[in-house]
Amino acid sequence: MKHSEEQLYKAIDEILFYLWDPLDCKEIPAARDEYRSYVPRVFDLLVSDANEKEIVKYLSSLETNSMGRSVASQNPIDIARILIEAKDCCFE
Predict the structure, then answer these.
(1) First to last CA, the chain
(2) From the centroid of its chain, how far is CA 19?
(3) Residues in contact with 71: Cβ distance below 8 Å, sequence separation at least 6, in sequence order
(4) CB contact at 8 A, 70 and 14
(5) Which residue has the higher pLDDT, 72 or 91?
(6) 58: closest CA among 8, 2, 3, 16?
(7) How far, in Å, CA of 88 to CA of 92, rounded?
(8) Chain centroid to CA 64: how far?
(9) Would you say 26 and 13 are in contact if contact means Cβ atoms under 8 Å apart?
(10) 35 CB contacts (<8 Å, ≥6 apart)?
(11) Which of 10, 28, 16 is nearest to 89 (CA)?
(12) What pLDDT score was predicted for residue 66?
């Protein structure tokens, strides 16, 4: 994995845990890996130049299908934008 890819991978992990955090577990140290299994798919979406809508769709589906939320939060729109900005910073 290239350095820029490693940076993006780490950034995605941080963004999902500290900013997205639909289960509100960022204050629980033992839950640090709660969203780590989603990082590879988000990484793939970003490096394949997925657009904001595709990322929002993925994050929202995780919330409603994998996490049992009845409605996805409004947060995925902002998170998708931040993820795309992170990719742009890592690959400039």
Answers:
(1) 17
(2) 9
(3) 64
(4) no
(5) 91
(6) 16
(7) 6
(8) 15
(9) no
(10) 13, 16, 17, 20, 21
(11) 10
(12) 86
- List the structure tokens of 58: 């993925």
Mean predicted confidence (pLDDT) in 83-92: 94
**Above 70 in pLDDT, residue 24?**
yes
CA distances from 11 to 41, 44, 65 (A): 14, 14, 24
The Cα 13–Cα 34 span in angstroms is 10
Domain boundaries, the chain: 3-20+36-90
**pTM (two decimals):** 0.92
Report pLDDT digits (tens) over 36-86: 999 999 999 999 999 999 999 999 999 988 887 776 677 899 999 999 999
Q: Tell me the two tokens of residue 52.
A: 């904001």
